[in-house]
Design a protein that fits this description.
Elements (H helix, E strand, L loop, with lengths): L3 E2 L2 H23 L4 E7 L3 H17 L2 E7 L5 H13 L5 E4 L9 H7 L11 H9 L7 H12 L8 E5 L6 H8 L7 E5 L6 H6 L3 E4 L17 E4 L3 E3 L2 E3 L12 E3 L5 H22 L2
Helix pairs in contact: 1-9, 2-9, 6-7, 6-9
The structure holds 5,10-Methenyltetrahydrofolate (GUE).
The site of 5,10-Methenyltetrahydrofolate has 18 residues, from helix 2, strand 4 and helix 9.
């Protein structure tokens, strides 16, 4: 058996086509396109590549890119000045601060200074409250992308046993909150790589979401035959980017969202969706 592809690349392209139509309409009614800002501090090549990708996505659907770059030794004040500037800029509908920030900066203070209405990542503390409450607010992009990918491939969620590995703020922790909403009704076990008997939790799961940043962690040996497997892990090595899911997993899984081509493109599509939705909310309120 070889797993069917949860094709994030194709699904994201389809989502972008729908968003492009909404952007065209907004641009006409509002008189200017929605704008997505990125704040990049330092010169980490990986971060540069990700941010470039986000700007390419913007260009494809007619969203205006707003780039802000700061040197690796930027002060807290300099970064916060950029945040204040984007908060005040009416052309900037939403923006992200590319993480991680250099260690000398206080990332939480930077994120808290953002206007929550412009939080394209859905990671502002003010937007994490509604995530827990299940009321409307921008959703974290990777969890939203994972749910969208599963839905569009008719992978059943209601009653499914989901094992998440990784309890990070961008993926693991919030995906547990999304999947246990009434609209999804999954049963979620949230593990870390050090969870005792991790293999036992994994073997019980109908759906495995790997977000640990631990290359090759999920092998066929720890999977229930027929499980759906989504790789949200990404580690930069000398051999290139490596996911959390071992290639042999494809021989026992029914569904596989691979890295690359699975969760990553969906994350980027959801960033665009968050910006377009923010622009639509703004257009409705004037
Ligand atoms: N404020 C903030 N928001 C983020 O969303 C954020 C961040 N900081 N910091 C870094 C991580 C990482 N991340 C990725 C998104 C897409 C791909 C992606 O599209 N990957 C391609 C492959 C990329 C390649 O080949 O270079 C794929 O999986 O097919 C990867 C990584 C977003 N992040």
């Amino acid at each position: 058996m070889t797993a069917q592809l949860l094709d994030g690349k194709a699904t994201a392209a389809e989502i972008r086509r729908g968003l492009a139509e909404r952007v065209a309409e907004l641009t006409t009614t509002v008189g200017r396109p929605p704008g997505l800002g990125t704040v990049l501090v330092g010169d980490d090549p990986g971060s540069h590549a990700y941010v470039d990708g986000k700007h390419r996505d913007c260009a494809q659907i007619g969203v205006a890119p707003i780039r802000r770059r700061l040197p690796v030794d930027a002060t807290q004040q300099q970064v916060e000045d950029v945040i204040d500037e984007l908060n005040a800029d009416p052309a900037c509908t939403g923006y992200i601060v590319q993480l991680p920030l250099p260690r000398h900066l206080d990332a939480n203070a930077v994120l808290e200074r953002m206007d929550p209405a412009k939080d394209a990542d859905g990671l502002h503390p003010v937007n994490l409250g509604p995530l827990v409450l299940g009321v409307e607010a921008p959703l974290p992009c990777t969890p939203r992308g994972i749910v969208e990918l599963l839905r569009r491939h008719d992978v059943p969620l209601a009653g499914a046993r989901v094992c998440v590995v990784g309890r990070g703020i961008t993926v693991g922790r919030p995906i547990g909150l999304l999947l246990t909403r009434r609209s999804e009704n999954a049963t979620v076990t949230l593990c870390r790589t050090g969870t005792e008997d991790l293999a036992r939790h994994l073997r019980e799961a109908d759906i495995v979401i790997a977000a640990a940043g631990s290359p090759g962690l999920i092998t066929k040996a720890v999977l229930r035959p027929g499980a759906a497997v989504l790789d949200a892990g990404i580690t930069r090595t000398d051999q290139g980017l490596v996911g959390d899911v071992h290639p042999d997993a494809a021989t026992v899984a029914t569904w596989l969202a691979p890295m690359p081509g699975g969760v990553g493109p969906m994350t980027r599509a959801m960033l665009l969706a968050n910006v377009v939705e923010a622009a639509e909310r703004n257009a409705d309120s004037v």
